[in-house]
Protein: DUF1618 domain-containing protein
Organism: Sorghum bicolor
Amino acid sequence: MEEAENGVRKLPPSPTTENGVRNRSPTRDPGNGRRKLSPSPTRSSAPEQRKPSASPPPPRVPKWLILDRIVHRSSRRHCGVVKDDATASALAQDCAGRPVRASLRIADPPAVSRLYLHLTGRPAISYREPTAIAAHRNSILFRLTAPFEDPMWWHDRFSFPIDYFVYSCRSSSPPSLTLLPPCFDGGHINPQLDKLCTPYRRQRQRTMLPEDMGILCHGDQGSSMEWKVKKVQIPPDMKISTYSWMTDAVFPIGTCLCWVDNYQGMLAIDVLTDSNSNPDHQQWLRYIPLPKNALKSQRLYKDAGEPDPLRSVCVTNTGIIKLVCILTECPPFTLKAWTLDDIHEGRWTMDLSNTMGAEEFFCLLGTGHSCLPQVQPSFPLVSLVDPDVICFLLKDKDRGLFWMIDVNIKYKKLLSSALYISEQEEEDGYPPKRGRRNNFFGHCFIRSKFSSYLSENAITSRDLSEKMQKTKEGRVTQKS
């Protein structure tokens, strides 16, 4: 997705080479997603000469990351995941003036990367854990709770002020950490709690649910950091149930944000439309229904906030929008995928080469990968750089493990696998020395291009990720 220009009022045109959804990648090698190289030339018959040993190549920069929503509150003394970590941000402050710094443990997909927060000067009490919410290009949006200083109010932890930060990186300068201003418009006002919040801000942040939030980076560098609350209209002929709508994902495409219900469709709106000239101008949501065959299934997990493990709608960095479904109507399951051919007409095409049955899927997990559990996959996630590569989460109930795998579903090939590293394993070793702060049962991960904006020398935490992975794999092998 390219940088949006000011004044753009239309949805991205359908098909273009940057943001259109018809963009198709060239023929790829099924193993790495790149063009196949031509055969090597015939070797010369001249005597072979010994060449001086070359210096080792620079570390490979991951093209994209799978970011966990669970954030790690680090106790490391140095300001980063590792010493001299180039992902460590400049020092920022929360709404109470306490220092905050962020860094990132980077891992190659399908291994999961994790955001680290380095916090000091906070009361030694439990409160809602920080959460990664969304990512776009070189930025990550996360939520952080700011506890009250007054112990009299520590019992009411859900009333603690909430801060939203944007963690951004550039290859030419150290990463930055920006505290977003609070948004009061439309929020519930409680004078008693607002008085308590006076040392932090004038009143409480309005309630915003993370599952309904997204981030879209654009080129307005000189704009003031003020919230604008705009009313949007729902078309009267929009054939969806707003009562049963559940937001499963929010992602940007072009100048728009799209809210996705995995069982109804997408709602899109151009969030960069300039309506300052006409304050009464109201924007209309644009409804894009799912393909008819995908509308026949019912949501199995209907509790509010419960992540859906069977479906996902994702957009690649070239603007290809893809729906992946794990259909269970005909046991055990079938994997199917659709591509949105025209965002304006809402026309989907089933990817016949991206269909796979359970038996074929289990065959991929067999030979050479005996550690992988033969179970139904969950939480499908389309690669940010290759629409034919899909990542899945596998849950090994017997051993209490989770695996991440990536599959080239077009060529029916398992590319790689990785164990999920839980938050309490980050720096305390095994078994963890402290109690569990976060429970992981599986959730929708966040795709990010953050690492591609860093210089090669900045990927210093990648070695740590590989070491943690090998250590955990060794423990699993010993127990098998």
